[in-house]
Amino acid sequence: MPNPGLDQRVLSHAQLEKLEVEEAGERPKWDNKAQYMLTCVGFCVGLGNVWRFPYLCQSHGGGAFMIPFLILLVLEGIPLLHLEFAIGQRLRRGSIGVWSSINPYMLGVGIASMCVSLLVSLYYNTIIAWVLWYFFNSFQEPLPWSQCPVNVNRTGLEWECESSSPVDYFWYRNTLNITSAIDEPGGLQWWMVLCLISAWAVLYVCCIRGIETTGKAVYVTSTLPYVVLTIFLIRGLTLKGSISGIKFLFTPDLDELSNPATWLDAGAQVFYSFSLAFGGLISFSSYNSVHNNCEQDAVIISIINAFTSIFAATVIYTIIGFRATQRYDDCLAGNILTLINMFDLPEKSIDDSNYASSLSHLNSTYPAIISNLQLKTCNLNTFLTEGVEGTGLAFIVFTEAITKMPLAPLWSVLFFIMLFCLGLSSMFGNIEGVLVPLQDLKVFPKSWSKEAISGVTCLVCCCIGLIFVQGSGNYWLALFDSFAGSIPLLITGFCEMVGVVYVYGIDRFNEDLKFMIGHKPNIFWQSTWRVISPLIMLVIFLFYFATTISKELFYISWDPESVTFPTLKQKPYPVWIYIIIFLLAGVPSLAVPGAALFRAIWKRYC
Amino acid sequence: MRCVWMVCVLCLAPAVAAILCKPDVTDGYKVRLSIKTALGDDAYEWSKSELFLFRAVLAFAVQRKTNNVNYDVSNILVCDETERVSFWFVVTTPDNTSELLPKLVVENAIRENRHRINSAFLLTDQTLDFVGINPTLAAPIEYDTPPWLIVFGVVMGVVCAGIVALLVSTFLQKKRAKKPSADPVDDEDGSGSIAGNGILCESIGDKDGTYNQGFTDDDRFTKL
């Protein structure tokens, strides 16, 4: 595509060499390669690797899910990652700078990235606040979510807790103090406000001087999760029932491969897991030296990300397997107790091995009594598939499993430190994707120092984030998660590819890569950048868009007054929420053509 | 005549006792013991001696409750023993062996001495089950300061100290950098106020997000 004036907007190769040699730029730099790699790994590896990937893996055919995941990783993830690294390193600007350098009409792509980074930062740090709350509460024995509190009269347990479970009660009542609908705000929950403030404070102290401080923080936040995962793996494998969990996770069901939803979910997971199109990766890569081997970096980080997903899934499922086996054993023990109490049989006359035969024998002799007993059906598979995604996994299922382990507070502390580090290192990238564009757009006066800019940004985000710590906060968070962090990213990612390949020019890009890393990118990169990856992005986007538009939008709520309590109740969104949804998904997406249109009009009439 | 009467009473006594204690009696309770569940390999066998201990402990509990009225093991009647290790029991009054102690008194006696009864058998509230007497709930642990606030305080203290330290160090760095500003350092101060054709370079550079460093570089080598 014709692109006039590109040479004036972009540093030439000769100028880059000079910059490299003389270090005349004011741009911050990484202290060493390790910092850069750890920061990128930390940004890519986040909470999604721990609580989204295992669920997808298990629900889409276990081991068979690896096939679409790895194929799409290679065809979609790695090329996009390499593209972002290369363009950042070449143009040495943040996301807004890069896109306006490529073509001033593409400024909208940078603005879309910034908007998405901002919206995601707002709610992501609330999740970190929740993690901190659980972390603060882990320093007591017994853990507060291991037993139901006593009710006001001390006559029995709290009703809401007894009808659901102690972990559900602690999450929905003690942590969120959730209301039953999104239009009931419920007021600010002071303990969550404190946790939110501490989450933003920790983020501020790590980002106060940009990558100078972030680069030091990542030595801990990016490595600690791996240490904790290894500890949990060893602990998990020694627990009863862990192997059944792993078997459940990895048992392949090749029929799932013919289901398009599997491929779609795999593609979406690869895309979101790599934190592409946020602008943070472009920023981080721009602080590198010009001749850094970004091709190698992209491949290494992709491999680390995939490995971490699989590793985390294994660890999670050893613990899930343990919990499911415990629940199954308890269920069976309860039934056996009921039977021996009813028929006054000696203890241990019925145990796990002869339960089925004894039950059928008793049922044939006394069918009426057996049906009156209302024995529960105990199915291990049901327990294995229970609520194992998202916040439900971390704050309900996993916390319950921890209460059954010896030395529970220790495992709880370790687990929540791991989640905290995973979330914080992803936040570094998100905040980078907000701060650098704000500086490029000159929103702040030049006299303000880095500390002041990051301070003001964190403060404003913290204040806006108060939406998520009111009673209905969880519903708002789910809303933001579904709409702010999905469609706009897909659009931005697609535009990025098209922008670099067709507006910047793939030939020019190839030359740049030859200059930076010494050899022209091979046929694999050429084919994926030009055709394959944009096509995959387009297909995913269209499917996503079609499914979102066509179905009526529901949210699930915790409603103690509903008939189906404790099962979460599906409620339709009120009408005014649709406006919010449009703002969340529409504003960043429309910024892409909108900025171009605005500029065209401005140029014409000014 | 008296001998016949005594024989009749003696014959009737066990019958009377049998009538006093039966399953679903109003003033009695069913007890279930789950010894193997509680103790596993260390479980003891249920025997006559264990039953005797039970009756003795229960007599103790009732005696304690009724302010030391003299109860004896024979006042505790047991019936309907099963292999489950469950049975029914009733408590007779010491003065009149055909009268039963009211249910409520028995219940309160057991509640107040539950811990002692459990300990005698090395069992818990769940494994020594008096059907109909629910265990009283343990008092919830009350903290003066919730533990989470303490950890929160520690974390926030460290974070605030970190922020203050970093801000102070930045401030000191700036102060130190300002000091040698007295020396005229022209050649290093290249990017400040270079002008070409009367137009400040910076103003050209800022249009359309571009920054052409060509001008600044040239000035270094063409010192005027």
TrEMBL record, chain A:
One cellular-component annotation, GO: brush border membrane
Entries under InterPro entries matching the protein: Na/ntran_symport (IPR000175), Neutral_aa_SLC6 (IPR002438), SNS_sf (IPR037272)
Chain positions recorded as Na(+) 2 binding sites: 49
GO molecular function, one term: neutral L-amino acid transmembrane transporter activity
Keywords on record: Glycoprotein, Membrane, Metal-binding, Sodium, Symport, Transmembrane, Transmembrane helix, Transport
GO terms of biological process kind: sodium ion transmembrane transport
Binding, Na(+) 1: 42, 45, 273, 305, 422, 426
Membrane association type: Multi-pass membrane protein
Cellular localization per UniProt: Membrane
Transmembrane portions of the chain: 36-53, 65-87, 107-136, 190-211, 223-250, 270-287, 299-320, 410-431, 452-471, 483-506, 527-546, 575-598
Entry keyword annotation includes Transport: yes
Domain of life: Eukaryota
NCBIfam families registered for this protein in UniProt: Na_transp
PANTHER family the UniProt entry points to: SODIUM-DEPENDENT NEUTRAL AMINO ACID TRANSPORTER B(0)AT1, SODIUM/CHLORIDE DEPENDENT TRANSPORTER
Family named by the database record: Belongs to the sodium:neurotransmitter symporter (SNF) (TC 2.A.22) family.
Name of the molecule in the record: Transporter
Organism encoding this protein: Astyanax mexicanus
